[in-house]
Amino acid sequence: MACTERNVYSTSIATNSYETALCIIPPVEHCHNVDRLRLLYDKGYGKWPPHINLIYPFVAPENLPRAKERIEARLAAELDTSSVNINLDESACFAHRSNSTICLRESDSLEASSLHGLRSKVLGALDQRPTASKFHLTVGQSVDKTLSSVQFLLSKAKLIPRLDFEVLLLAILIREPIPGNEKSESRMRLWGQIQLSGESPATLSEFWLGEESVVNARDDDLDHPNGEISVKNSAISHFNLGIQPGTTYKYEPDIMQWVSCLCSPNDEAKSALLNVTSYNVLVDSEYPPARDRDSLLQNTILSGPASSDILLLQEVSDDFLSYLLTQPEVQRRYPFASHGPPSQSDIWPLPSLRNIVVLSKWPFSWEFVPFRRRHKGAVVARFDGVAKSHSGESVSLVVAGIHLTCGLTDGSVASKKVQLHTLQSYLKWKYPISPWIVAGDFNITTSTYTIETALKNKLITQQTAKTLSTMEMIIKEAGMLDAWAVARVEAADLTTGDTRFDFEDLFEGEDGATFDPRNNKLAAATSGTSNNRPQRYDRILVKPQGLLRINQFNNFGLPESHDGVQVVPSDHLGIRASMKLLSCTENDSAATEDTVQKYNVHSKQASQALCEFSALTSALAAHGMLPTDEESRGRKEVFSLVKEVLLGSSSDKESAISDIPMVIVPVGSYAIGTWTSTSDIDCLCIGSISPKTFFKLARQRIHRAQTQGIRLLRKVEANTGTMFELSVNGVSIDLQYCAATRIVEKWSEFHNLHHSDPVFNLPILSLRKLKPYRDIIYIQRTLPSAFVFRLAYRCIKLWALRRGIYSSKFGYVGGIHLTLMLSIIHKRLAHDGGSVTAVDLITTFFHYYANFDWKNDILYDPFFHQKTPRYYRSAREPMVILGFHAPNANIAHTMTVPGLKTLVKEFELADQHLSQEGMTWEKFLNGNTVSDIVDSQVFSPSDFLTSQDSFVKIKLQYWSPSLGKGRGLLGWVESRCLLLVLDIHKALSGIEVRIWPARFTDAKATDAETDYHGCYLIGLSKDEGSDLFATKDDRLAARQTLDRCFERFLDQLHAVDNYDPNTCWMGISLVRPSEVRNLRIDDREWGDYVLDIEPDSDDEDAADDLSNDNEEISVPRKLPERLAPPKSAPVSSNKLRPASDILNRLRWDPSLNPSDYIVGYEDRFLGAKETTLKKWRTEQTDDEFIPQHRILYFKRRNDGVVVWERRTRIDLVFGSGASAGNRGD
After folding, report:
1. Taking CA 293 as the corner, what is the angle to CA 291 and CA 298, rounded to the nearest 5 degrees?
2. Which of 209, 719, 731, 1039 has the highest Cβ tally under 10 A?
3. 126, 16 Cβ separation under 8 angstroms
4. Cα distance between residue 49 and residue 173, in whole Å
């Protein structure tokens, strides 16, 4: 028997098979920690467990039973009672051809290692000679052989706490092919185990084989982008651990260490506010770690604007987290953390180079949701006890921190979509009723300019561009609100940067940018695109579930300049959202929510043919709706010149301050950026002096600046006060003034004052003057995207112009109407969806207002009016649109019932045509062929002239030389046209009444004609289904009713001072379409004919303020020289008396009759003209004022004798000039 046993052991078993291995597997708790690193760095992860090879290669598979029996027998006989302990306390690396392996090992010498003795006994049992071996536990492999790559992973391994454990068993592993693997890869399975201890047998499971994550189980949930691991291979992927529970750390000041803790319900969270901050701190060096920004980042995180209850950091490295968590103030503010400082001996290093870390003032539990791309996942933290439902039950608050794949490529964009969908699916599955907050660096390209450029350069496909939009829909469909967008539309966005009058257009998607390579040197260095446009990469998304309400939003970490050098903590700005915990707020009013929900605007997606951004801009540019860069620069220069002249300053700021307490700001279309080349600039000056003093001062300064191209055209007196019309280098300027001393005194803080501030306790006239500017500030501050708004506005304005419904004075909509209507839609869409494109905004605009109940509802901004405004509409207000600040009035007060009917009809037509398949912007706005004009969608004056059954023609003829008076007459007639429209509508209810908001003239008429002929047209058409004209008697009665309307209208026109039968004629008649088909729009600009207010001899009282070197104009015209006997002794002088002296003498000398004299003057456009002395105006603000240096002569009416002439120096009134010694009667 003894001989038999000896023969068995004398037969050696070869250890040369790589199909098996004899190894030591650490305890499971150590394995899980090691596997978090191996998952990312070790190519053997998922195939091998964490292990220390005792013998590898081992015996052939067929020899395993025999080898196991021998080893067990030998160890049972020779192993002493002392246990085998391993102490992995040192990291090391060994090089390969293309990379290096980083591992853990014992620091003791080989001879001192218990593993060496164990290996010798095992080899002896197999009748093999003992050999040396480098026992190690592999952590991973470096990417390449570069020093930074090797040292990075080695430094991470050095942070691993010492692994000290007792070896209880040896594992025998055998290789097998991976089922279903197309690459014929293999893995190691547990074949058996050898017990070392005499205690009860230990069990070992094949934990390293893993199972798929529950959120990654569905094949149809994921795409297969470049760089992503296919779902089909998910069972063998590197990411099959599924959801990984995390350990929360708490700082214990008594022992001055971070220790692991269990989450318990938060009993201290009694605050009604919750602040959540997200910040990408930027890792800019793999190895060695850069530490020059650490203190700057710390100060930024602890700054006031960054102060929060929950802080989510991205791109956190081991080195920076170790630095941050050792700072006393950080330990005090944020005693709980998802990861402890890796520099602490008992805490494991962070898994990646760039990590997500959560810090909080409250305890929490968390888990890591891995994505399918290496190093990517979400940290999902659960806060118990922070929020309570309205029933008083505790509800968990879920906060997820993410850092999606960067880059704008087909693969990276597809990865982002998968990652976002994975997180959403997990949250929806795990926390269906809890409120969510998802924050971090989304890395989603938002700038349409960047996307369009990438498409043009074929860097991405159209499908990728569509995927970017799809991600926004994923966010919206999940019920998550974008905190920035919500705060923006609710005027709670405190992001820095004064964009009130930023004339440099940001492109769509660039508002609220957190990554701006143009203004951040770190961002410029890390930007992945060549155009360096701003991107809103960082976001805070909120799913309120009725328990959270976004209250405020701000950013922090802005670049600063120190000694001319830019200092910036990171390439990203940090963002913070402040939210109200509604369950903690007593008597929280639901009125605001109800008001907002009342304006529940459903986004209408534009068709594929309309989604092309370049097609829209090309169509607008073709109609001159997009100002050129040269025009923009010209407007800036004009506005700067006006400020310089009026305020005596040359500041480039948008509002300048002069020595006299005054500021001047733009309002209207120029302020909001929706102007076109034909728009004027509305300016408002706010000061402490009286309006009379201001306009006198302004007139003097304008006169001095005439050489710079600034001219005063006219002075307008209205119920709202005085206004100057200026012309500055060809650009029209409307200048108004508001006397408000307290406003000027508080100007530095004016834009942040609440609308209820006592500073606005001003007279009603001052409030009316300030209202446009205050409303513009609010709109500017709350628009989610100025670029999107401006583009959509210009498109809608062009449409309204072509359809003949853009004119508030004719009872339609004007600029302020469209601004408010569009801003409400824009803000509502952004509030719910976070972002909106210009094309979707346009289509939604038409769809919403085509179905709006104008009869019963009033239109207002629900984000400004947090409760339904108290407004009692009268029967004469078919449409009510309320502005913002006091005095609050209906801005649509000129809208008429027929005008509203026309407007709604046009909205419905536009909505229908934009919904048609194949509709393009060129067809919608232009219409190149007849087939393009579906149902007269592309409308024009010529279409109007042929689309009505008959027309009311208001004819006007004017032949006076005073073009200023003619302009006033036209304005008066236009203001009366609405009365006629209303009169006809009331008299004939079955008639559609539509006025075209422009003046027509004969197609052959020219500006050179002496007499002016023009007309206004009101189209009349029978309502569908109306039987108003069924009989001849009905038609006769209708005609008689119309005639009475016409008579009343003419009586109104003739009964005012504007009507002078000696200079004009007006008539009205009913005409057929054939009688007006040759008419065209009158493009004559009457404002160009208003005369300059230039200094002359009548202004001698103000000579100190005016120039005296003006040369008098001579006219090449030979006038008859007729002498008359003198009436008094002449004044002997060689100098010719000025025209003002002659004028005053002829007017005020009791012996002379002013009616007997005629004034000859030079018209700048028509040449020499004459008028009676009685009609001559000397008041400069009069519409018919003519500068007196243009006077050529005076003559008597009865005999034509010239009594004074400038050119020949004749003066028969005083006997001056060439008539010295003579005077005429």
Report:
1. 105
2. 731
3. no
4. 10
Q: In the prediction, which pLDDT does 1114 show?
A: 32
CA–CA distances in Å: residue 1158 to residues 118, 494, 652, 865, 1064 = 131, 67, 50, 62, 21
Model confidence, pTM: 0.79
Q: Are the C-beta atoms of residues 419 and 373 closer than 8 Å to each other?
A: yes
Report residue 153 as tokens.
Answer: 């992973």
Domains of the chain, residue spans: 2-212, 244-588, 613-924, 940-1088, 1092-1219
CA distance 1086 to 963: 7
pLDDT of residue 765: 85
Task: Give whole-number Cα distances, 528 to 220, 441, 464, 507, 886, in Å.
Answer: 31, 15, 17, 18, 48
Backbone angles phi, psi at 607, to 5 degrees: -65, 165
The backbone torsions φ and ψ at residue 52, rounded to the nearest 5 degrees and listed phi first, read -120, 115
Crossing angle for the helix pair 815-833 and 838-850, to the nearest 10 degrees: 110
- Report how far residue 225's alpha carbon sits from residue 13's, in angstroms, rounded to the nearest whole number: 49
What is the rounded average pLDDT for all residues in the chain? 82
Contact of 873 with 854, CB cutoff 8 Å = no
Q: Which of 500, 528, 494 is nearest to 512 (CA)?
A: 494
d(CA 254, CA 872): 67
**Bridge partners (DSSP) listed for residue 394:** 388
Q: How far apart are CA 518 and CA 497, in angstroms?
A: 14
pLDDT at 1207: 83
Supply the CATH classification number for the domain 940-1088: 3.30.70.590
Q: Which secondary-structure segment (H or E) carries 119?
A: helix 114-125
Decide if 130 contacts 113 (C-beta within 8 A).
no
pLDDT at position 342: 95
Instruction: Tell me the pLDDT tens digit for each residue of 766-825.
Output: 888 999 999 999 998 899 988 999 999 999 999 999 999 999 989 999 999 999 999 999
Query: Does residue 204 contact residue 221 with C-beta atoms inside 8 Å?
Result: no
Contact indicator for 520, 538 with CB cutoff of 8 Å:
no
pLDDT, average across residues 911-935: 71
Give the Cα separation of 55 and 621 in Å (integer).
Answer: 77
- For 613-924, the fitting CATH number among 3.40.50.2000, 1.10.1410.10, 1.20.1250.10, 2.60.120.10 is 1.10.1410.10
Mean pLDDT, range 1127-1150, rounded to an integer: 70
Q: Which residue type occupies 926?
A: N
Q: What is the pLDDT of residues 569-620, one digit of tens each?
A: 999 999 999 999 886 544 444 555 556 666 688 888 888 888 888 889 889 9
Phi-psi region of 565 (alpha: psi -120 to 50; beta: other; left: phi over 0): beta
Cα(1152)–Cα(1137) distance, rounded to whole angstroms? Answer: 18
Q: Which CATH number does 244-588 carry?
A: 3.60.10.10
Q: Is 768 exposed, middle or buried (0-12, 13-18, 19+ CB in 10 A)?
A: middle
Where would I find the H helices in 783-891?
786-803, 815-833, 838-850
- Closest among 1138, 1196, 1187, 1139 to 1163, alpha carbons compared: 1187
Give DSSP secondary structure letters for 1100-1159.
GGGGGGS-S-PPPPP------------SS-----SSPPPHHHHHHHHHH-TTS-GGGEEE
The answer, yes or no, to whether the previous bond of 288 is cis (omega within 30 of 0) is yes
Specify which residues 1195 forms β-bridges with: 1158, 1202
Which one, of 543, 1183, 510, 1014, lies nearest residue 786 by Cα? Answer: 510
Please name which of 1054, 1063, 1078 lies closest in space to residue 1011, comparing C-alpha atoms: 1063
- CATH superfamily for domain 2-212: Cyclic phosphodiesterase (3.90.1140.10)
The CA–CA distances, whole Å, from 338 to 288, 341, 365, 862 equal 25, 10, 8, 40
Where does the pLDDT of residue 438 fall: very low under 50, low under 70, confident under 90, or very high at 90 and above?
very high
